[in-house]
Structures are given as structure tokens and as C-alpha cells.
Fold diguanylate cyclase.
Amino acid sequence: MDNESQQENSPENKRLFLLYTNSLKSVPATILNSSILLALFWTKVPWLTMLIWYTLMLSVSIYRLQQVRKALKTKSYLKLHPKKALNQFILGSSITGAIWGASFVLFNFYTDEAYSLLMIWIASATAMGGSMSLAPSQRAQNIFVGLIFLPAVVMNIFSGNEFNITMGTLCILFLIVLIMLGNTFSSWVNESLTLQAQNQELLQSLQQKNERLETTNSELIKTKEFLTEQTMSDPLTGIANRRSFDHTLIKEWNRCLRRQYPLSCILIDIDYFKRFNDHYGHQKGDELLREVANIISSQATRADDLVARYGGEEFIVILSNASHDDAVMLAERTRKAILDAELEHKNSEISDRITISAGVATITPTNIQDCYEIVHKADEKLYEAKNNGRNQVC
């Protein structure tokens, strides 16, 4: 979460956001209430006094509404310290409350008791609505309600008129009750905002931990894949190793058993490899093994074909769903490809180039057979090829 999002989700700025959004409804309500008061008292109060009061109320309300809309659109309040932004807001609501309070002072001289009651009723409705709107800030709430009622309380209590004193007393009681209820509601709102902020922090923390876990899991998967690849491949030649061969043999045997496909196996041996090593050295021997592995892999190109290093200078090929003739053809093609590569071997008894011998076996698996039976048969055929003079396929 970026810095602006963190600021926006802090309890203080959430409180400001609620105050601004509530003002989008409460300020138009203030304009409506003041317009009703204007219509009701227009004939009772001198028009100039009424017009000045209404113009002042309308101007302040419109200005506040513009500032609120601008603040919400541009989020300018996030650029200020929360206390400063709150004080600016409280100033605007306090001016509105003071203008309402001034109406008692201005209009009381020109109205009778019935209109005084009406004015107190309108002020009470405005105070209650404003109290709910300003609930996110107890200070704004108390100042607004106090500025509406205190002028009426003072004027009525000190008027000396029994009716006015009674009204003043009722205003005090109503003010106390309204402040108590408003503060209770404000506490609920602020507790809710604090819980929201805590939940947001907890959610952010969980998201960060989840991201770290996903990253760790991804790294573990990659490491596992790498280690699996390392354990399933021959480090010298890069092709599959004996473990990979065993795993694939069992899998392909079972697959061919289910579908009753033929499974073929080619066991390949480099002729007179020990003599090559003795004559050219082990480094050249390793290079030769890599070269032969590449040539064999280039011949067995089907998706299910597997070429593996079986051990030492021996290689083995698994051909799923391949007939014996197909396997013999592949083995013969591989033998010629190695011969055509003209890899020097001056210490061979049968050629001055590297040659291979290959044994081919094909079985259509049954439940009574062992999967390694095909390897034994291919090994027997390889032994036969060697006894017959090498550099051939049997």
C-alpha cells in the first residue's frame, strides 16, 4: 500500500472524509431550513434584517459546499496535518452555528411567543441534524450545537418573562440531552473508525505475509524443480539418468499394459570405450560420451521417447508404442549417424572411428511379466551383437 493510501485509511483522515461527505447533505439541508425560516418570518422581521441574515447564511453555506466538494475531489485534506484540516472544518461549521444562533437575537425582538416556539423548533431540528452529521468529531458537534442554542438560552433566561425563562430552561435541558446523545453517537462512530483502521492494518499485514509466502512458495517450487531435474538427469551428458529411466520404464510399461501397445527398448554400448579412455584420456572420454548422447537424442525425437545414460558407456532408449521393426530401424539409423560423425578411435579393433553395438527388444506387456524383462532381453541382444563382431544391431 502506498503512502497516500495509508494516509487516507488512517482514523483521523477517515474521520475527516466522513465529515466532508456528511456535509454534502447537511449543508444543503441548512440552506433549505434557512429558506423556510425566511419564508415564515418575512412578514414579521424587517426585510433588510432578514435579507442580511439570509444572504450571510446562504453565502457561508455555498462557500462551505464548494470547499467540501473540492476537498473530496482533490483530496487536499490529505496534504494537511489532520488537526489543521479538522480545525478548518470546525471553523466553517461554527460560523454556520453562530449564524443560526444570531437568528434568535435578531428575530426575537419582532416575534410573539408562537413564532419563538416555531423558531426554536426549526433550530432544534437543525441542531439534531447537524449533530448527527458532525458525529465523527465531538468538538465540532458540541461547538455547533452550543452556538445555536446559547444565544436563545441567554436571552430567554435573562428576559425576566416567565414564558421566556421556561423556554430558556427547556433549551438548556434539550442542549444537555442533545450533547450527551451526540457524544455517545460520536464515540460509536470513532470506535468504528478505529476498528476499521485496525482491520485495514491487519488486512495489509496479512496481504504482505501472503505475498511473502507466495514468493517463498514460488522459490521452493523452482528449487524443487531444479533439484528434481538434477536428480533425474546425468550430470555429465545432460540426458536422463538411471533413476529417470527406471521411473519412465515403469510408467510406460503400465501405459502400454493398459492399452496393449508394444514397448521397445534399445540398449547401446560404445565399442572399445575402455581402450579409448586409455589412449585419449578421461577428459576426451567424457567429451565422447556427451557427443554420443547428443547423437542418440537427435535420432529419438518423438515426445514419449526417452534416451538415458544406463551406466558407464552404455545408453538405453525407451520407445513406447513402437514395433520391433521401428525400434531396429531407429537403432540402425543411430549406428550410422555415429559412424558418419567420424569420431576418431585409433585404438579400436574394428574401425578407426567410434562405433556402437545395439540390442533391441520389444514386448507387449502382460500382468505376469516384470517391466525389467525387456531390459534383460535387450541386454541379451546387445551381448549377441558384440559376439558377432560389434558395430551392428541385433
